[in-house]
Amino acid sequence: MVKIAIYGKGGIGKSTTTSNLSAALSIAGYKVMQIGCDPKSDSTKCLMKGVRIPTVLDMIRDKGPNDVELEDIVYEGFNGVLCVEAGGPTPGIGCAGRGIITAFDKLEELDAYEKYEPDIVLYDVLGDVVCGGFAMPIREGYADKVMIVTSGEMMALYAANNIASAVHNFGKRGYAQLSGIILNRRNVENELEIVEKAAKEIGEPVVSIIPRDGTVQLAEDQGKTVIEAFPDSQMAKAYMNLAEYVMEVGENEMLLCQ
Fold first, then answer.
1. What is the DSSP letter of 147?
2. What is the DSSP letter of 207?
3. What is the pLDDT along the chain (258 residues), one digit of tens a residue?
């Protein structure tokens, strides 16, 4: 099992990228689990026909911590992708990062990974801040690799640099390692050059360039990923290319573990 955390500034297109990557990997024959780690709880929506699934924290609140079962929190989406949303606290009350920790603990308690046996687990993590529960995929041994989604916009690059610094710091302790930058284009002037310069400073390559294309919005309007709605489009090809890179990362990781 290969576990990859995908970080990025809120609103950068991280969930869109992750869900299309999950869909592409499933088409390639992998059993994929996607875990949304954002209080908005919309990471897996386009894998679930536009429907928001109950979150782990919702079910704990509704049923009680001892009565939650895997079937309450793990849902099968497009092409068999297993979908989980950690959820967040009641607005204004509690800590969103703590909610991620609670959700992860519940998945482990219920032996989710042993039961479903996914080949690849993708964590979709909000990356404006890398502290508390939001850092859990990096520091607690959940993820093997981290990929960062950014654009050429200043705040997206600022977040990417913070995430990279956190990963490097945790990496010294044997935790997750960075495995590349994904450029999700916003058509900023000289965007590729700006992001490549930032990536060089971070010490990681730009491994995928996702063009800005209206196909994404058309697919999401249908409650679908591009992979499902427009499988022959250029956008679908871009996500499939990203999936090929992730498959290489996964194969290398499994070789290291042998």
1. E
2. E
3. 899 999 999 899 999 999 999 999 999 999 999 999 988 899 999 999 999 999 999 999 999 999 999 999 999 999 999 999 998 776 666 676 777 888 899 999 999 999 999 999 999 998 766 666 778 888 777 889 999 999 999 999 999 999 999 888 877 777 889 999 999 999 999 999 999 999 999 999 999 999 999 999 999 999 999 999 999 999 999 999 999 999 988 777 655 454
Is the dihedral angle over the CA atoms 12, 18, 19, 25 positive or is it negative? positive
Strands (E), the chain: 2-8, 32-37, 75-76, 82-85, 120-126, 145-150, 177-184, 206-210
Q: Is the torsion defined by CA of 46, 253, 163, 106 positive or negative?
A: positive
Q: From the CA atom positions of the chain, what is the Rg in Å?
A: 17
CA 162 – CA 180 distance, rounded (Å): 14
List of residues 6+ apart from 82 with CB closer than 8 A: 31, 32, 33, 34, 74, 75, 76, 116, 118
Look up residue 209 and give its two tokens. Answer: 């360039």
Tokens for 170, please give them. Answer: 């945790």
Give the residue numbers marked as catalytic. Answer: 9, 14, 40, 128
* Conformation bin of residue 190: beta by default, left when phi > 0, alpha when psi is -120 to 50: left
Q: Which amino acid is present at 183?
A: L
Rounded distance between C-alpha atoms, residue 72 and residue 209, angstroms: 36
149 within 8 A of 14, measured Cβ to Cβ? yes
Q: Which residue in the block uniquely carries the two structure tokens 């859990």?
A: 136
Asked if 213 and 179 touch (Cβ cutoff 8 Å), the reply is: no
Looking at this protein, which amino acid is placed at residue 58?
D
The rounded distance, in Å, linking the Cα atoms of 47 and 69 is: 21
